[in-house]
């Protein structure tokens, strides 16, 4: 019996050794496959609730207390001093409390409070999951944008979209995995969609920028009218052959590998990208749904419709940016009124369209600014009054992708200055988004400069209360 046990133990160890060898070989094979095609789809860490993300970024900082965070005491105490201390560090000085110029009303079966700024989005509240206790640490646009997009306000780090494509790859090998539509070139600029030290193939592909109307935003040099496709393929093979010895002499040169991969992707995009970007293929009814027939809503409507078409085509992460318009230090009524009018109908149209096509179920839609605004007045009291930056408590919402529809989580204080109940830090938001995509934020790491980095750095918790 003892002899049998020894034999079995030896066999077990031999089997384990072979198993470890097989796992190592499998890992090497996967690494080699990713080297050949770094955008290939990859399995998540666990079962995902969402497959893709559409990020609706409101650059400048929408006011939570004038949009989705109803504060009746703010109306009651209009003009009175704030009854508690203001933050030790402020972007600028502010005065007494100022009520919202817009009336709030409850909507949907969930009874969510929404201001008159968003009548179209108000009809969709039963699809939305509000987070009303988000908070960060940076009062300036540049740092706050970087913190929201990359997890760090002070260092160059990979953006959220780059991390997600690094973790999951792309569902369509003929399109980029990460696209940013009309992005801002200020307040961190390209760092907000860069891959930083991740391989360059994971960085966002910008289409246009904030100074270019969406109808003019294009991918440059998408087609080559001078050469047939077979000739271009031969050119690319020649370049690849010439690059081969350089790559062999520089193992692990991510920049060179990314450059080669980008040429391959650019060649493949010729077959699919023009069709995806052609909005004339959509019906007149769809154009009206997104507000493309109206000059006020056309610009952001085009971004939202492009985001739906790209998501449907397999792009993993698409960002639409309404830039740079929400920074109302003065003339709050005029500025926020104009801004909301430009985005309200397109956003509601996007949610309606995604749901009708069965895409909302596994598409996570995120609406957010880089921070909120103060309940205290800035500038002259009256019609020209404004609000200052406020990273200490603000509202974002998500829809689809496995979040709890028709819900609200967390709260600010009675006046909307500080996150007070069930606080959610930006790191927590990032960890939650990754978890909805089936990614463990503590395991999604990349070794650089002798350290394992991740989107959430050394913090972040998954807010599972937001899950359906």
Please give a structural write-up.
By secondary structure, the protein is α/β, with parallel strands linked by helices. The chain has one domain (37-223, 270-466): Alkaline Phosphatase, subunit A (3-Layer(aba) Sandwich), CATH 3.40.720. It contains twelve helices and 17 strands. Strands 1, 4, 5, 6, 7, 8, 11, 12 and 15 form a nine-stranded mixed sheet that branches. Strands 2-3 form a two-stranded antiparallel sheet. The chain has a two-stranded antiparallel ribbon with strand order 9-10. The longest helix has 35 residues, at 2-36. The model is unreliable at 1-7 and 20-31 (pLDDT under 50).
Please describe the topology of this protein.
Elements: H1 2-36, E1 52-58, H2 72-76, E2 104-107, E3 112-115, H3 119-122, E4 128-135, H4 141-150, H5 160-168, E5 178-181, E6 205-207, H6 229-249, H7 254-269, H8 273-276, H9 284-289, H10 298-313, E7 317-322, H11 332-356, E8 363-368, E9 372-378, E10 386-390, E11 394-399, E12 407-409, E13 411-412, E14 419-421, E15 424-425, H12 426-436, E16 446-448, E17 451-453
Parallel strand pairs: 1-7, 1-8, 4-12, 4-15, 5-6, 5-7
Antiparallel strand pairs: 2-3, 4-11, 8-11, 9-10, 13-14, 16-17
Helix pairs in contact: 6-7, 10-11
């Amino acid at each position: 019996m003892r002899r049998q046990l020894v034999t079995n133990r030896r066999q077990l160890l031999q089997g384990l050794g072979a198993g470890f060898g097989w796992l190592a070989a499998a890992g090497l094979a996967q690494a080699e496959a990713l080297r050949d095609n770094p955008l290939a789809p990859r399995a998540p860490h666990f079962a995902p609730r969402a497959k893709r993300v559409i990020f609706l970024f409101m650059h400048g900082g929408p006011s939570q207390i004038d949009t989705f965070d109803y504060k009746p005491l703010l109306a009651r105490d209009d003009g009175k001093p704030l009854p508690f201390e203001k933050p030790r560090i402020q972007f600028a000085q502010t005065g007494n409390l100022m009520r919202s110029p817009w009336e709030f009303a409850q909507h949907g079966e969930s009874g969510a409070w929404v201001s008159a700024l968003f009548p179209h989005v108000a009809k969709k509240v039963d699809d939305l999951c509000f987070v009303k206790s988000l908070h960060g640490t940076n009062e300036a646009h540049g740092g706050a944008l970087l913190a929201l997009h990359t997890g760090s306000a002070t260092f160059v780090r990979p953006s959220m979209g780059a991390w997600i494509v690094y973790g999951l790859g792309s569902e369509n090998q003929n399109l980029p995995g990460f696209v940013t539509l009309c992005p801002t070139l200020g307040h961190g600029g390209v760092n907000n969609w860069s891959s930083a030290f991740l391989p360059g193939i994971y960085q966002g592909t910008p289409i246009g920028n904030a100074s270019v109307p969406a109808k003019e935003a294009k991918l440059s040099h998408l087609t080559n009218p001078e050469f047939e496709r077979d000739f271009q393929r031969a050119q690319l093979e020649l370049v690849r052959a010439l690059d081969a010895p350089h790559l062999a002499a520089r193992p692990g040169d991510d920049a060179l590998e990314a450059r080669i991969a980008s040429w391959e992707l650019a060649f493949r995009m010729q077959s699919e990208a023009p069709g995806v970007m052609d909005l004339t293929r959509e019906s007149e009814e769809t154009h009206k749904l997104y507000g493309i027939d109206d000059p006020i809503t056309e610009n952001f409507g085009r971004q939202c419709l492009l985001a739906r078409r790209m998501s449907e085509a397999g792009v993993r992460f698409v960002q639409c940016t309404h830039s740079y318009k929400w920074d109302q230090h003065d003339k709050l009524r005029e500025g926020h009124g104009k801004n909301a009018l430009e985005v309200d109908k397109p956003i509601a149209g996007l949610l309606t369209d995604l749901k009708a096509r069965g895409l909302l179920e596994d598409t996570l839609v995120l609406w957010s600014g880089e921070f909120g605004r103060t309940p205290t007045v800035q500038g002259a009291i009256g019609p020209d009054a404004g609000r200052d930056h406020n990273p200490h408590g603000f509202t974002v919402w998500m829809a689809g992708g496995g979040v709890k529809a028709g819900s609200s989580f967390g709260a600010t204080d009675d006046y909307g200055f500080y996150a007070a109940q069930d606080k959610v830090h930006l790191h927590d938001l990032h960890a939650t988004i990754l978890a909805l995509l089936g990614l463990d934020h503590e395991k999604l790491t990349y070794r650089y400069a002798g350290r394992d980095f991740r989107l959430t750095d050394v913090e972040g918790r998954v807010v599972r209360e937001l899950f359906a």
